[in-house]
């Protein structure tokens, strides 16, 4: 059996594995359980991962530009592939199915689309057209297509909504990682027995011990004090103006976060660890500071002498997703502006405030994930200091009850995540 994994998460090398840690906490358990479900299958993917990742999960990476780049050349190749598919349908001859992409589709028994929250307005117009063309090619060749663990939408423009209505109902399976996406699709008329709400496999991601030798200074900051710690993850999506990587930013854009931190210092005994859930990579592939680090460094600078350096701190080292989850597990509570940073806490029973996006395009997945974990009341508006403070203080007052609730809830979410893989077992093809 051959499985082809494609989708809008196919981007340049490093993006899924080393940059946004949230991407990796999805991809790692996704491919691990896909391999566990189909132990003998050949699995090819257009996701650009490291050779170590490919080897660990026994994958074949499709590294040619045709599979992950979007531009004039890609558009030309897609136009040519459209003609080839039309000729194939007219003459019923696979001879016409030439080209790198069509050859992969032709030889696959199952195609999995792994587009996350990008299928919709979050995709550039060219990427949205391209991914739908690829899905249509798969359907034209009679291949079962499963769009897994996504948060499709919104579709504010008529043409995007029209195209989604033409494509999604025809897919063999669509699993949404939170229920609001399913409700949004139904609202615009996209519904059917093929569309199912499950949960994101990020809940299955495993932490990796953070050892003293890794960074003695950071280790002592986290484990060397008796005071409990609040983790505070911030990113460009939480800021009042976009784009998310806008730089420089005005001091006023940090006002609500400074007010929250100052309030916590005045009214609680907490120490506060300001951190990121994102990195970047240099030309050699090593980790370096990314956009989110500029955000937290600026926040820390603005706090300046207003705060006690022993009570508010940042981490000097750069940590991967497994180490970050281990660090988060030692927080008393977490405040996270990245949804999968929040999941890193919630999945371990850490009471967590989820900070919403501060600018467009807003993400319904934030409320959707909160619904899955049952923490709807702990979603805060980053533009409203009262919301940030009140929601955080409510969580602190309810932290013991919330921790107990999460410990009972998370095993159920893990079962919901595993449902994704049970659902695709029906597409298994036994090789003769």
CATH architecture of the largest domain: 3-Layer(aba) Sandwich
**Helicity, in percent?**
40-55%
Straight-line N-to-C gap? 10 Å
Number of beta-strand segments: 15
The best one-word shape is elongated
Name of the top-level CATH class of the largest domain: Alpha Beta
Mean pLDDT: 95
Task: Give the low-pLDDT segments.
Answer: none
Total tally of structural domains: 2
Order of strands across the widest beta sheet?
Answer: 3-2-1-4-5-6-7
Structural class: alpha/beta
Most strands sheet: 7 strands, parallel
Q: How many helices? A: 16
Q: Using the coordinates shown, work out and report the CATH topology of the largest domain.
A: Rossmann fold
Gyration radius (Cα, Å) is 22 Å
CATH superfamily of the largest domain: Glycogen Phosphorylase B
Strand residue content: 5-15%
Give a written overview of the molecule.
It comes from Halomonas lysinitropha. This is Colanic acid biosynthesis protein. By secondary structure, the chain is α/β, with parallel strands linked by helices. 44% of the residues lie in helices and 13% in strands. It is built from 16 helices and 15 strands. It has helices at 15-19, 21-37, 51-57, 72-91, 100-106, 125-140, 158-167, 179-187, 216-223, 255-267, 291-303, 321-328, 339-346, 364-373, 385-397, 399-423, and strands spanning 2-6, 42-45, 59-61, 110-113, 145-150, 173-176, 195-197, 229-233, 271-275, 280-281, 287-288, 312-314, 333-336, 352-355, 379-380. The strands form three sheets. It has a seven-stranded parallel beta sheet with strand order 3-2-1-4-5-6-7. A six-stranded parallel beta sheet has the order 12-9-8-13-14-15, sandwiched between helices. A two-stranded antiparallel sheet has the order 10-11.
